Amino acid sequence: MNDRVIAIDGPAGSGKSTVARRVAEALGWSYLDTGAMYRAVTVRVLALGLDAGDAASVARVAASCVLGVGERVVIDGEDVTDRLRDDDVNRAVSAVAANPGVRSAMVERQRAFARHQDHGTVVEGRDITTVVFPRAELKVYLTASDEERARRRGDEDPSSVARRDAADRGRTASPLRQDADARVIDTTDRTVEDVVEEVVTWAKTLS
Ligand code: CDP
Question: Which class is domain 5-205?
């Protein structure tokens, strides 16, 4: 067991997933993509024919599902990895993620994941620095200009990205916000390697 955590938050297209995965590789730590968890629950909700806004039913799915998030994402026995970024999921995920019942079920699983790793965990999402791991030893907030973030999200319509960002920032339950202790990196004009190196350098000064 090892509950060391590097927490990374930021909006869509800020580079969280790529940076978090590479930092984890560089340190030999585990990596957890919490967005994939909200997306997987959304896929399941849609497959069950539920309305994403039906808070009680959606929260029940989140609390009772069997969810595995790694190289592949599997929920209730179905590999949904290739469904996670489909348009219908992009449209419904904000409502699912704004549901307090869904959030408490996911946050509990995220903390359990980190507790069970042999080394530390790099965790990324929208509320990781602020709510899930407020005592993480390193907190990073990634940003990028709106234009650059839209460019990186090539296959998602810019208006869909903007709607998701607005919903993530404006919701009552754990909105995306920059934690006061987070180190901020604007990734707009920087390479992935450069950003990864900066985070790894910070991480090494802590250990
Ligand atoms: O890759 P991208 O940043 O576009 O999105 P993602 O990380 O896959 O997350 C998808 C959606 O899940 C976000 O738009 C949020 O609504 C939600 N989410 C969240 O609420 N909390 C998290 N810790 C991670 C994702």
Answer: alpha beta
Instruction: Tell me the pLDDT tens digit for each residue of 144-200.
Output: 999 999 999 887 888 888 999 999 999 999 999 999 999 999 999 999 999 999 999
Among 34, 80, 103, 131, which residue has the most ligand 1 atoms within 8 Å of its CB, making it the best to mutate?
Answer: 34
3-state secondary structure the chain: CCCCEEEEECCCCCCHHHHHHHHHHHHCCEEEEHHHHHHHHHHHHHHCCCCCCCHHHHHHHHHHCCEEECCCEEECCEECHHHCCCHHHHHHHHHHHCCHHHHHHHHHHHHHHHHCCCCCEEEEECCHHHHHCCCCCEEEEEECCHHHHHHHCCCCCHHHHHHHHHHHHHCCCCCCCCCCCCEEEECCCCCHHHHHHHHHHHHHHHC
* pLDDT, tens digit, 9 for 90 and up, residues 28-50: 999 999 999 999 999 999 999 99
Domain residue ranges of the chain, discontinuous segments joined by +: 5-205
Cβ of residue 97 lying under 6 Å from some atom of ligand 1: yes
Residue to probe by mutation, ligand 1, list 168, 176, 177, most atoms within 8 Å of CB: 168
